[in-house]
Amino acid sequence: MTGLTPESLALLLAATLNAGTVVALASLGLLINERAGVLNLGAEGMMLVAAIAGFATGVNTGSDWLGFAAGAAAGALMAGAFGALVIWLNTNQYATGLALSLFGAGLSAFVGISYTQQRLPERPHFAIPGLADLPFVGPALFRQHPLVYITIALAIGLGWFLMRSRGGLVLRAVGESPESAHALGYAVRPIRLLAVMTGGALCGVAGAYISLAYTPLWVEGMVAGKGWIALALTTFATWRPGRVLLGAYLFGGVTMLQFQLQGQGVQIPSQFLTMLPYVATIVVLVLISRNPTWIRINMPASLGKPFHPGA
């Protein structure tokens, strides 16, 4: 076994950003949902359908960006169906979300049968000119897929939108007290549907990123629980975009650390190393749950609760 060299540490940091981007994108989408008062447990299913939609589009068109667009559209479409059920028909949000997740897993497996052996065109290599060649920080930070940087910018922009813009204040008002927002003349249901579909689109981009960039192939069930991790991260982050990034990169770092340890021949059962990211997530949630008042203060007051305009 050998220690970490600067080169391997740089690669570990780069892989952490790459892995964290998946759950960061999905978590930011779910955060938008939940800020509007809607809890969507279907992230895993949406990401799976988006992964096969993005991969199939990438194989047939040769364009990753069309693949990301297809993934976003698939996620938004599934989220729109979910939103119609829970917002207008007032179905139970928990049960409907679980059904969406199961439906997405089955649909993606069925559609993806013919794509299991397919290959994408040669993968492009990204680098920021002038910065990518810097010692250590170049390979660690400046040779990432553009979506990594877009995700960071999105988190910053979403934080500003929620706290500083009129639209963000309206969205938060709908999540805190839809009755009061309705009394002030805001269209609560359309606002919630727009938030749900926007969140679904971001989950879709996250799913497409898995099959197009993170592990450029299609395998049934390849999201592997990242949708559930994204759901947990919204609570970990207390519904704040900046903290979502922190939690996502923490998960990405632990995920990549297991591969680093395996590559260095650490004598630990591989099954234990594989479960490390999920154990770390559970531990963090347990620690946060020890202070329920803190969660209650930060959580949108109407989260998971139906809204009846005529009530």
Automatic annotation (TrEMBL):
It is found in: Cell membrane. It is a multi-pass membrane protein. Coiled coil: none annotated. Keywords: Cell membrane, Membrane, Transmembrane, Transmembrane helix. GO terms for cellular component: plasma membrane. Its main location: membrane. It comes from the Bacteria. One of its GO terms (molecular function) is transmembrane transporter activity. The chain crosses the membrane at residues 12-31, 38-59, 65-89, 96-115, 146-163, 193-212, 218-237, 244-262, 268-288. InterPro entries: ABC_transp_permease (IPR001851). This is ABC transporter permease. The lineage of its organism: Bacteria, Pseudomonadati, Pseudomonadota, Betaproteobacteria, Burkholderiales.
